Amino acid sequence: MTFNILISDQLSEEGIYPLTQEENMNIVMETALSPEELEEKIVDFDALLVRSSTQVTRSLISKAKNLKIIGRAGVGVDNIDLDAATEHGVIVVNAPNGNTNSAAEHTMAMIMAISRNIPQAYHALKNHQWDRKKYVGVELKDKTLGVVGLGRIGVEVATRAKGQRMNVVAYDPFLTPEKAEKMGIGYGSFEEVVSQADFITVHTPLLKETRHMVNADAFQLMKTGVFIVNCARGGIIDEDALYDAIVSGKVAGAALDVFEEEPFVDHKLLELPEVVATPHLGASTIEAQETVAVDVSRDVIRYLNNDLVKNPVNLPSVARDVMTVIEPYFNLSEKLGAFLIDLTKEVAEEINISYSGDLYGIEVAPLTRNTVKGILKRHLGSSVNDVNALYLAEKKDITVRESKTSAAKGFTNLITVQVKTKSGVRKVSGTLLNGLGPRIVKVDGYSVDVTPKGHMVVIQHIDQPGVIGLVGSLLARHDVNIATMQVDRSDVGGKAIMMLTIDRHLEDKALKELSGLEEIKEVVAIDL
Ligand SMILES: NC(=O)C1=CN([C@@H]2O[C@H](COP(=O)(O)OP(=O)(O)OC[C@H]3O[C@@H](n4cnc5c(N)ncnc54)[C@H](O)[C@@H]3O)[C@@H](O)[C@H]2O)C=CC1
Ligand SMILES: O=C(O)CCC(=O)C(=O)O
């Protein structure tokens, strides 16, 4: 059988060598197709290989009737609609390791460029201006580099910065003081890191949580004269806030490889002399491009030859007969994980999942992976899937335990997820009600009955008259409609829980006011 492979972004020719050696692979490289042309063309192809320029949208995937695999020659898969790929049974593979060095080196080059005004001085010289006074820089030695996101690239940048005799302080939800000490770097919260640093570099993926995490509030915390670097993803830094911070003199310079909208030719940030920029070149080296193209090419060959792939991003590899039995529980298990980690607001150190009733005696490993995915997604985003969830948990030193009991406490089936974080242990149980779908039935031992869907508020409070009324009227003042309300308590006048489902996301202002009520011990807004 011959497979048709479409390469729609510029990939290294040496890198695709493994593919060209396969007799049954027909390779077409077309790197200037418009989205419409691509949608027309994709119908005939079994594999699509891209970098970051091609937008692999739901619409494109839905037209790709023969598509089996999408290969992303790079790390970020934010240009690929993973849900759509999964729904259409298309596996996505990437090359997470191949461009780490290049991205770290580019980051260091950018740090050096802004610290010594190299692009600006070069530009002036090209324009026949010999100006030594204007381009006095600062040394890196003894300056503090704040690294936000200490994954593959963040670690490499931190190591290189230490070589420049910089002090490094990092924030990553998975970083502990012990790990930081081992690496010889400082450890702090996001706020601590940005307020201590002379240079700040971000290396997180672009997620709901990281979008605009470097915003006007963060700039307020920073030292005057700080330098900002983004070689990760446009959108992690709020570009409008950065512009204002540069104009006000708070930020001395910014080095940007990535932007909220790409590509572009005019950008207001580039009108500022303090900004140096490159057009998303972090991974653009001969070495990185060859390695990432080789890595995805090999995975494409493996997959089309029915072998296991090395870097799956979205594949649920489950035997069909097992899948048929456990499929109805998938939504429940992921939602329980997502609910619980939102409730804790912290990263998990241990995850215990127990299955009972009808789930006793059934292969539940795929549900465990799915629950862990729900938990990890909060910090790792869409790169976590059923295939890599346990691997990523292990990499982040999170212990995952699975157990089964025949007793289901009155339910025909029950999944209980318990998470240990640095502040303690929290627990949630859910069941699949015949014909009615998933329900959360216990939260930290309190009984509730809530569909895990939409906008929720979980309130821990003291059981006393008037609290429910207070909550109701406060939400009414914020024009928040309560759809359902569940209340349970430990004992009369003791600790109690209130679980609300509401018609829209609870904004920070209302959340703060609720938390300020004396009778209320904890308020968490959860959006599932
Ligand atoms: N400019 C370019 O050409 C390139 C850009 N990239 C981008 O660099 C980024 C990082 O890549 P890798 O290091 O390979 O990924 P990684 O997955 O190894 O590291 C990301 C780290 O960010 C952390 N993180 C997640 N949420 C966070 C938060 N709210 N605050 C602080 N840290 C948080 C994660 O815990 C993880 O340790 C990605 O967005 C990737 O797409 C990667 C290669 C080239
Ligand atoms: O393909 C490229 O050059 C972009 C690399 C990148 O941003 C990534 O790997 O996430």
Automatic annotation (TrEMBL):
One of its GO terms (molecular function) is NAD binding. The keyword NAD applies. GO terms for biological process: L-serine biosynthetic process. Pathway: Amino-acid biosynthesis; L-serine biosynthesis; L-serine from 3-phospho-D-glycerate: step 1/3. Transmembrane segments: none annotated. It is an enzyme of class 1 (oxidoreductase). Its EC number is 1.1.1.95. Catalyzes the reversible oxidation of 3-phospho-D-glycerate to 3-phosphonooxypyruvate, the first step of the phosphorylated L-serine biosynthesis pathway. Also catalyzes the reversible oxidation of 2-hydroxyglutarate to 2-oxoglutarate. This is D-3-phosphoglycerate dehydrogenase.
